[in-house]
Design goal:
This protein is of the alpha+beta class and about 250 residues long. It contains five helices and ten strands. Keywords: Signal.
Length: about 250
């Protein structure tokens, strides 16, 4: 029977573990993405919510109203129309499903619903080298940024007005409301993104919250989107019942 020095078994096991750790290997995870990014959707819906929050529907409280959305065209059509209805109901407006059931017609329209992007690069941009110099092949010099920053902005512009269904007389207007939201990404020396903007509510580095104040002011933070706070029916203006307030 062959005997081995004490501790040989432990050494062999350690070598086996090191060998497995050094062995090549790979793993893959299949991921999919939606056609529209979540950032784009947040930019648009947050800008819309912020604009809608500025509208005072209380002059319509207690009046049977039909909401005409024929001129409301937006990518997020369902969200836009549903949030309009919710805002009106929350402030005591009596919505009707048919125009002939309403005393007033409220017509809504959307002037702007989209995004813009601005980019800043401090460094060497990507450059194409033409094949014009002898001995130097054509090619592309890659981008070499010291600082790179992108600022994407969502914008929403809306307006509403109301008129009496029977007489056609103008009775109310919300005025024109414009609101924006933002998403900012910064790379320093190729490291990043350092993310900020109103839709994020703070500064993040690769998904980790940083203990820094947001770039935006308190006004920008307010544009991050309306909080869904429950309404207090008792706080709404006292109105007559549906039958009493309805006028053919």
């Amino acid at each position: 029977m062959t005997t081995y020095p004490k501790g040989t078994g432990r050494l062999v096991r350690s070598l086996m573990v090191l060998g497995l750790a050094a062995a090549p290997g790979c793993g893959t995870v299949k991921t999919t993405n939606t056609v529209r990014t979540g950032t784009e959707q947040l930019l648009l819906t947050n800008a819309w919510d912020s604009a809608l929050q500025k509208i005072d529907f209380r002059p319509l409280t207690g009046v049977p109203v039909f909401l005409d959305t024929a001129n409301v065209t937006a990518v997020d059509q369902g969200w836009v129309v549903s949030s309009l209805r919710q805002a009106m109901l929350t402030q005591g407006v009596l919505l009707r499903t048919k125009a002939e059931q309403a005393q007033w017609i409220v017509e809504a329209r959307v002037g702007v619903y989209g995004t813009d992007e601005h980019n800043l690069l401090i460094g060497i941009p990507q450059t194409a080298i033409p094949a014009t110099l002898p001995g130097i092949p054509a090619g592309t010099v890659p981008e070499m940024p010291l600082v790179k920053k992108s600022n994407q902005q969502g914008m929403a512009k809306l307006a509403l007005f109301a008129y009496d269904r029977a007489s056609g007389q103008f009775v109310w207007s919300s005025g024109t409301i414009l609101s924006t939201s933002s998403a900012k990404d910064t790379y320093v020396g190729g490291v990043g993104p350092i993310q900020g903007g109103s839709i994020r509510g703070g500064t993040e580095f690769v998904g980790i919250k940083l203990p820094l104040t947001s770039e935006g002011s308190s006004d920008e933070a307010g544009r991050a989107g309306r909080q869904n706070t429950p309404s207090d029916p008792a706080a709404l203006r006292q109105s007559a019942s549906d039958l009493d307030s309805f006028m053919p």
